[in-house]
Amino acid sequence: MKKILILALICSFSVSIFAQEGISFNHGDWSEVLATAKKENKIVFVDAFTVWCGPCKWMAKNSFPDKAVGEFFNENFINAKIDMEKGEGIEIAKKFEVRAYPTLLFVNGDGELVHRAVGARDAAGLLELGKVANNPETQIMGMVKRFEKGDRDAAFLKNYAAAANEAGMPNSKEVGNAYLKTQKDLLTEENIKFIFGNTSSPKDAYYSFMVKNKAKFADVVGAEKVNGLLKSVIGRPFYRNNELDFADVTKAYSEVFSKENAAKYTAEFKMNYYGARMRGEGFKEKFLNAAVDYLENHDIQNSQTLNSIAWSFYENTTDKKLLKKACGWAEKSVDLDSNYANNDTVAAICYSLGKKRRAKKFATKAIELGKADGSDVSSTEELLNKINSL
Fold it and tell me: Residue 56 catalytic?
């Protein structure tokens, strides 16, 4: 009996230690959380999440359980985890204008926002965010007040622009432009990086400047990144147009890129444009045709892109001619970078085509690679059972 008691105490002590690691969340209602924060003179950290948000789940699994994160957040904040689509979360989302997930909110005991950030962070990034949010000198709302009072110090404006951008605040561009107006030379490495990081629309004040000086931006940031950003920025406004003339897209790309690249980017845009509308009548066929056009007329060497398109074909067509094309793209993806996802895609398509031996080969390889990198391979194991029963 004594041995059992000692063992029970050891287990209890172990559980106690385990429970202390990571962020400890308060599960009371919102008024209770605020009251606790006010009583203890602490800020409330809110993980504003939804159940369908992948990055939210990633943080819950990888960032919140971290020991250093837990020690800092448990000591300095009252922590709350609130679903923004249920119960009190719906009103909280409205009050703090939560539109993207995860949004990380920091609120004082009076229910006033003091800091916020949008997007997932690893443990180190979350810890750094917590330190920023806990410092009155770096809290976003303190910066808002300084800006409203007319503070236009260059260093302050630069920090405020970065914080506003990170927080997803609508005035981040205004603050960024105010900073750039303080600069005599916009082509310093520092300012090139700043402009690059704050450009998301052709309407942005310094978009034309970046296009004009594309070569210098490429020297600092890298040509691939600059071309990728400009391609995205140019195409973004066209996605909202339901009666689109693709000649207009080509014209827009041609103003920045070579004729060859403009044609390639238009073909890619067309595929994605139809892909985003696949639920609409007739758009699935348009997507499939546009994808074939894109991949057969342009040299695509991106493994992830090839695999993603191949998988879309697997999910959206039973046409054997199209599936054979998709299988070729998936195999090319494997040749470029063999991983769990693309081996699984080849296996799935080969199974649909009745190619048992080839399907088994790639399914087995996918499971091997998936287990090695910690992926959930249960769906591929189910597929392998189906392949074996062919």
Answer: yes
